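Consider the tokenized backbone below.
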């Protein structure tokens, strides 16, 4: 390990020329999962691509044209202890909500966790991480004033408690000492 570039992800084969990777995590199948956002004028939609550990494109695992209650500008992603893939998603319009979308091991959408209810103060997240006791830790930011908090979610109940709050300014990323940096799995 000397910090030299050893390879790069080769998106040849990705049918969309709009390749803008955001986050990467090693999946339970030893493939790299990469969130990719589109830079379309409306900013909606996005993908999760899979690559071999050597950086060769495998397939489009998730593809979504976006819109209300859909995947938009995906950022952070992590595999849960349940084997499901959790992906952050931004809202499409003020009538929508920012959320964490949940997919099965075949890329099918299963469910989502809204980060707030319509009419409440907006918060969004870019990175997520499973930690102690299998909880999903989510740093959220209020775009109006860049203040934030870290929430600890019970994903089954879709409930959270505030784990850390003010005076946090733009809390983006998390780590726990026992977290595997490749898979983001928390080693208990």
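A designed sequence for it:
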């Amino acid at each position: 390990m000397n910090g030299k570039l050893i390879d790069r992800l080769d998106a040849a084969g990705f049918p969309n020329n709009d390749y803008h990777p955001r986050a990467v995590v090693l999946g339970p199948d030893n493939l790299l999962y990469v969130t990719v956002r589109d830079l379309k004028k409306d900013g909606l939609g996005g993908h999760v691509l899979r690559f071999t550990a050597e950086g060769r494109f495998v397939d489009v695992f998730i593809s979504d044209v976006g819109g209300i209650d859909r995947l938009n500008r995906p950022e952070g992603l992590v595999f849960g202890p349940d084997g499901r893939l959790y992906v952050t998603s931004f809202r499409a319009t003020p009538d929508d909500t920012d959320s964490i979308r949940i997919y099965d091991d075949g890329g099918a959408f299963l469910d989502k966790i809204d980060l707030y209810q319509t009419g409440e103060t907006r918060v969004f997240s870019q990175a997520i991480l499973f930690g102690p006791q299998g909880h999903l830790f989510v740093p959220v930011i209020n775009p109006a004033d860049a203040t934030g908090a870290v929430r600890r979610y019970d994903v089954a109940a879709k409930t959270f408690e505030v784990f850390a709050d003010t005076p946090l300014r733009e809390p983006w990323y998390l780590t726990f000492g026992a977290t595997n940096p490749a898979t983001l799995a928390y080693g208990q």
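The first strand starts at residue 21 and ends at 26.
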